[in-house]
Amino acid sequence: MVTYIKETKKTHRNNDIDTEQIVRDIIKDIQQNGDAALKKYEKKFDNSTRPFKISKKEIDDCLKNINAEHKELIDKIIERVEDFAKEQMSHLTSFEKDFGNGIKLGHRVIPIETIGAYVPGGRFPLLSSGPMVITPAKVAGVKRIVACSPANHKGGIHPTVLYGLIKAGATDIYAIGGAQAIASMAYGTETIPSVNMISGPGNMFVAEAKKQVFGKVGIDLIAGPSEVLVFADENANPKIIAADLLAQSEHDPFARAVLISTSKQIAHDSIKEVENYLDSFTSDSPAHTSWENMGEVLHVDSIQEGIDLCNEYAIEHLHLHLKNSSDYINDLYNYGSLFLGENSSVVFSDKVSGPNHTLPTKEAAQYTGGLWVGSYLKVLTHQAVSNDGMQFLAEHSAKQSKIEGLEGHRLSAEVRLK
């Protein structure tokens, strides 16, 4: 039986009708008025009047003056994300083979030509965001990578974010943010080139904009506020559990941190540890609001009941604080990314471990995984038919077309019959 020890105070639904209409108006305005509309929204939302494109001088200054420690950290992020993406890429292969005499079928795995990478600014400069979005695209072989990030640091992009965009492989970098950046990349303006696909996380306006431009361009996924679910047994450490819950809670006031435990004692102790930690957090940290309104703690009677609940939640980050966590990997199938054992911190994935941290939220893990090198690839089929293969397929197609009443289809098949 599932018992709630702490329930959410608000529904996890912050993308309301007002957000939808605001974004719809922005997209329409940029479609119709291009750069003029983009300038208006950059001034309104980010108080930015700077040129959109990051200049060569800004790039040179960044490369010259970047803090050495920051540079080393970002280089390591790119190295590890690139290594993991290359290994994934090595398992994606084109093929061609015979499927019967005279019937040659196959597919090619090729990159999308142009992508738009959105990298949020936020309250803090996130060193990993640019490399996570851009590096897999570069490994996939994307020719043009257009990157957009808000001009919210001294009239430009924060140096550590900019360095990550440069080193990861962005070919064009623009200091614009929000829904206006998504609209500009989707439809193009006098300055911003249109792209084939847009990827990357963002706030509710960015997420809504990606949703609305889908179809005109492809998107990776709708990535909302961060989510984590810790599943713990009686062997778990409440201090570590609490730290893992708060690490994701501090991303956003609407971030969602959930604890499911087979032990009521561990559940209650973890709540106390969360409250103890929060006393030392700054008063403006989103973790306070997130935990108060969105935090959940549940007790289950068995591991199996907990596993069933984990699959039901389809959470972004699923972290198992269980004895022999790896034993349960085949029982779990709805999650953005899985973290096995208390030492496998979600924070490692957020920063540097290698797998991508752009992951599905709001139960989207029921039908998709996170951003990866394959997100930037197209699998295109081809076929070459001749001789006996043509006769076999033409006879079948002609008979089927006659049943379906499709005269043109029947004709196209019959004209090839001997």
Q: What's this model, at a glance?
A:
This protein has 14 helices and 14 strands. With 418 residues, it is an alpha/beta fold.
CATH architecture of the largest domain: 3-Layer(aba) Sandwich
CATH superfamily of the largest domain: Nitrogenase molybdenum iron protein domain
Largest sheet geometry: 6 strands, mixed
Distance between the termini: 69 Å
CATH uppermost class of the largest domain: Alpha Beta
- In round numbers, the mean pLDDT is 95
| CATH topology group of the largest domain | Rossmann fold
Order of SSEs: EHHHEEEHEHEHEHEEHEHHEHEEHEHH
Number of domains: 3
Low-confidence stretches: none
Cα shape: globular
- Class by SSE composition: alpha/beta
- The number of helices is 14
3D structure, described in words:
There is one protein chain. The chain is an alpha/beta fold. The protein has three domains: 17-95 and 110-219, Rossmann fold (3-Layer(aba) Sandwich); 225-369, Rossmann fold; 386-414, no CATH class. Helices cover 44% and strands 17% of the residues. It is built from 14 helices and 14 strands. It has a six-stranded mixed sheet with strand order 1-11-10-9-12-13, with helices on both faces. It has a five-stranded parallel sheet with strand order 6-5-4-7-8, with helices on both faces. Helix 4 (129-140) packs parallel to helix 5 (159-168). The chain is globular, with a radius of gyration of 25 Å. It starts with a strand and ends with a helix. The model has no long low-confidence stretch (mean pLDDT 95).
